[in-house]
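Subject: design request, 166 residues
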């Protein structure tokens, strides 16, 4: 079974715009749903911004595996990458902190990174990788960019192999 979760506040959601508070509350709603349905084997996949949401989920409920696609340590790292002239991290109203949320998480984690990612700096991906104390594997897709990872067979092979491991 698969559950694809759209962030609240996007699409045709009439209840208000997106916010970190609403998104993290939605994580709790998903956890309640998983518990109600008695799902035992939960694999979380987070891509880009979703890495923060998946890390938060893993920090608050048991999961069997984590897959982080285009991962980062802390969202404000992107601000430093986008603008070297301005302290963008101080303007941010909301920040996601996968590196902090992953402290103490023991879930096996696969990190997939594009060698030519123009959005996520390599340094923040490595910072997250180095901070994870659980069993982990890093797969860098050579030649891929932030938005072309899905075009590479190695991307799917890495996920398939990871899911088959105990």
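Subject: RE: design request

Done. Sequence follows.
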């Amino acid at each position: 079974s698969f559950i694809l979760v759209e962030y609240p506040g996007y699409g045709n959601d009439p209840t208000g715009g997106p916010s970190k508070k609403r998104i993290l509350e939605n994580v709790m709603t998903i956890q309640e749903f998983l518990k109600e349905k008695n799902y035992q084997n939960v694999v979380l996949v987070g891509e880009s911004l979703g890495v923060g949401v998946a890390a938060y989920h893993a920090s608050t409920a048991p999961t069997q595996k984590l897959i982080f696609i285009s991962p980062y340590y802390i969202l404000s790292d992107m601000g430093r990458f986008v603008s070297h002239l301005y302290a963008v991290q101080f303007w941010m109203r909301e920040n996601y902190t996968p590196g902090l949320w992953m402290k103490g998480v023991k879930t096996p984690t696969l990190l997939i990174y594009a060698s030519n990612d123009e959005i996520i700096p390599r340094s923040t991906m490595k910072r997250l990788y180095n901070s994870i104390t659980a069993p982990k594997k890093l797969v860098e897709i050579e030649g891929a960019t932030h938005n072309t990872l899905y075009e590479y067979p190695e991307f799917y092979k890495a996920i398939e192999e990871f899911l088959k491991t105990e």
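The chain is about 35% helix and 15% strand.
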